[in-house]
Design brief:
This protein is α+β, with helices and mostly antiparallel strands and 500 residues long. It is built from seven helices and 30 strands. Helix 1 links the parallel strand 16 and strand 17.
């Protein structure tokens, strides 16, 4: 008997809960090998290519391009051509997620998913049996799933050879973008499960009537707008069949009010609606949390950057920088690293739970990057320890990777200070919001030719404005002012770096 395995969407980042299917690299009927790239997904931080953990023939794609899928939900089925056996089930990695107390979980055959009645509000995601510390453990993974229906095991019976891994199989689910979030699914190692089945409970969004229906029938019901609780089952053991769903849909009997899936975007004559998701969603959450948690103070300084512009020209002519793009951002980045040595408070963070200020003795320098996917802030690890040529190369690599949407989550975590270069858009400066987990951010404005007083004469000079926003819980006005003055002094005269 051939074996179909289902690959669940993994957590590819830090605390990932969902991802969008961007591009499928395969289609039904294609043959794949282990580690062949099958899909490109977009998380809240980057684009990620997922390899296939199985070798075999693609049976079905369980999500369409543009769909948003919860972590732990199956996205693809692969027929491996191997005999079904509990030993073939790959162990699943536990994923923990704080959720309300889980309801009692019943058991079902792998193809029949009961829907218990529940009037409780449903949070999107996965739930499982209670774990220590008030959290709930969820075991998600993939494993054999036979194409032949199995009989429902007798309640309380423990099949011979059953193992914890054998119960961790993917649950098929259909996804529709921008509709009501998918129902909660609990997966646990139930004694009543067969070696190739899982004990699964799917909550109904509106009904608390227990129904039995195969996943394809559930998908058909969703597509036709039919509430399964209103369908009269005619199948064996009270199972709802395709015919039952189609008859109710064709009868014209209105189903219970059900959210209608919306397109990913709609364009009218005078307005366009775009979904809030991915990078935009995470950025919004982070900025709101920062703005209403850290008391922001912003200071400005306008300075003569003519010497920095001349130094940039000299560096571009040197052979060490022959294949490296050099810009004034390099001088500002270097100035920030040096000034942080004299005012380490700007490179620290407020730890509210511990009631401590954590001072970082290293600078992971974040560079805000405007990309087609939205604002990203990857950071250069230990930027303060890099030579100028290495720092310039790191800035270039960071920008190129961000533009391609390939910045890995690790490069966006652990930042200690951020620079946002609004000057590339011709903007004089701004009042930036602090990146969460940090205490200060520097906005670099446009460098323009302007009249400037030099001695007793007015001359055309390269002038720019720097703005520093900082968390006033951590950084006092004197400390913020001293740091900004030090950065300005180096930008005005790069030779002053020798004094730091």
């Amino acid at each position: 008997m051939s074996d179909v395995r289902y690959f669940n969407l993994p957590d590819v980042g830090e605390g990932l809960t969902e991802a969008e299917i961007v591009t499928w690299k395969v289609k039904a009927g294609d043959t794949v090998k282990v580690n062949d790239v099958i899909v490109e997904i977009e998380t809240a931080k980057s684009l990620v290519e997922l390899p296939c953990p199985f070798a075999g023939t693609i049976v079905e794609l369980l999500a369409a391009e543009g769909d948003t899928v919860n972590v732990g939900m199956p996205i693809i089925g692969v027929e491996t051509g191997e005999p079904s056996a509990a030993a073939d089930v790959a162990p699943a990695a536990p994923v923990e997620q704080p959720v309300p107390e889980a309801p009692a979980v019943g058991s079902a055959s792998e193809d029949l998913i009961p829907t218990p009645k529940s009037d409780e509000p449903v949070e999107p995601g996965l739930i499982g049996g209670p774990a220590p510390g008030g959290r709930t453990s969820v075991l998600v993974g993939y494993g054999p799933r036979t194409t032949e229906a199995k009989r429902r095991p007798r309640k309380g019976a423990t099949p011979v050879g059953a193992s914890p891994a054998a119960a961790q199989v993917g649950v098929q689910h259909s996804f529709t973008p921008h509709a009501t979030p998918p129902p909660e699914v609990a997966i646990e190692d139930a004694p009543s499960a067969t070696p190739t089945s899982a004990s699964v409970v799917a909550r109904s969004e509106r009904s608390n009537v227990a129904v039995l229906a195969k996943p394809p029938v559930r998908k058909l019901a969703k597509d036709l707008g039919v509430d399964l609780a209103e369908v009269t089952p005619t199948g064996e053991g009270g199972t709802i069949t395709r015919t039952d769903v189609e008859q109710l849909a064709s009868s014209g009997v209105p189903a219970a009010a059900q959210p209608v899936p919306q397109p990913s975007w709609t364009t009218g004559e005078r307005e366009t609606r775009l979904p809030i998701k991915s990078v935009r969603k995470v950025t919004a959450q982070a900025m709101v949390a920062s703005a209403f948690t850290a008391p922001h103070v912003t200071e400005w300084v306008t300075l003569d950057a003519t010497r920095t512009m001349k130094m940039v020209e000299r560096l571009r002519a040197r052979r060490e920088f022959r294949d490296i793009k050099v810009s004034p951002l390099l001088v500002v980045a270097r100035a920030v690293c040096l000034a942080a040595r004299r005012t380490p408070e700007v490179n620290s963070v407020w730890d509210d739970p511990a009631q401590e200020i954590v001072v970082k003795h290293y600078v992971n320098l974040g560079i805000a990057a405007a990309t087609p996917r939205g604002l990203l802030v990857p950071n250069i690890k230990d930027a303060d320890s890099l030579a100028a040529v290495d720092l310039a190369r790191a800035i270039n690599d960071l920008a190129a990777t961000a533009r391609d949407g390939k910045t890995p989550p690790a490069d966006q975590a652990g930042g200690t200070f951020t620079i946002t270069n609004v000057g590339v858009f011709g903007v004089d400066s701004g009042t930036p919001i602090i990146n969460p987990g940090e205490s200060a951010i520097l906005a670099m404005g446009a460098i323009k030719r302007q009249p400037w007083v030099v001695g007793n004469r007015v001359k055309p000079r390269w002038v720019t404005t720097l703005a520093l926003s900082f968390d006033h819980r951590v950084i006092d006005g004197e400390q913020g002012s001293r740091f900004l003055a030090d950065v300005a002094a180096i930008v005005e005269d790069p030779g002053a770096a020798l004094l730091f």
